């Protein structure tokens, strides 16, 4: 692997660049919180060759949203479900927008 390959991965939101300790530090939470949201299936960290959990920037954003809800008093299981639903809604809206743009391109409206 070249240095360019390594630096290119740093821009990849899905690259598992952060250890559990570093992820917890970035989020200002505990490693136990990260384990709990993993058990709730909110995020599934990748594992290093040695079996250690590794987190991506995308996963950290998801975990940060869950932490925000938990800090507001939402039970962790409910917070995880809310974040999953928010993520699904965002994806559905993105797909809907793509379909709308495709339809507009294939069938442009004409002014009368």
UniProtKB/TrEMBL annotation:
InterPro entries: DNA-bd_dom_put_sf, MerR-type_HTH_dom. Gene3D superfamilies: 1.10.1660.10. It comes from the Bacteria. Residues 17-85 form the HTH merR-type domain. Pfam families: MerR_1. This is Helix-turn-helix domain-containing protein. It comes from Streptomyces durmitorensis. The lineage of its organism: Bacteria, Bacillati, Actinomycetota, Actinomycetes, Kitasatosporales.
């Amino acid at each position: 692997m070249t240095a360019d390959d390594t630096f290119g991965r740093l821009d990849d939101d899905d690259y598992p660049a952060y250890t559990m300790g570093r992820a917890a530090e970035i989020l200002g939470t505990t490693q136990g919180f990260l384990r709990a949201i993993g058990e709730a299936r909110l995020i599934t960290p990748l594992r290093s060759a040695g079996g250690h959990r590794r987190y991506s920037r995308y996963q950290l954003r998801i975990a940060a949203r869950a932490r925000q809800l938990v800090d507001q008093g939402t039970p962790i299981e409910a917070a995880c479900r809310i974040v999953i639903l928010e993520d699904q809604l965002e994806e559905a809206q993105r797909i809907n927008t793509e379909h709308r743009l495709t339809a507009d391109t294939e069938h442009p409206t004409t002014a009368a």
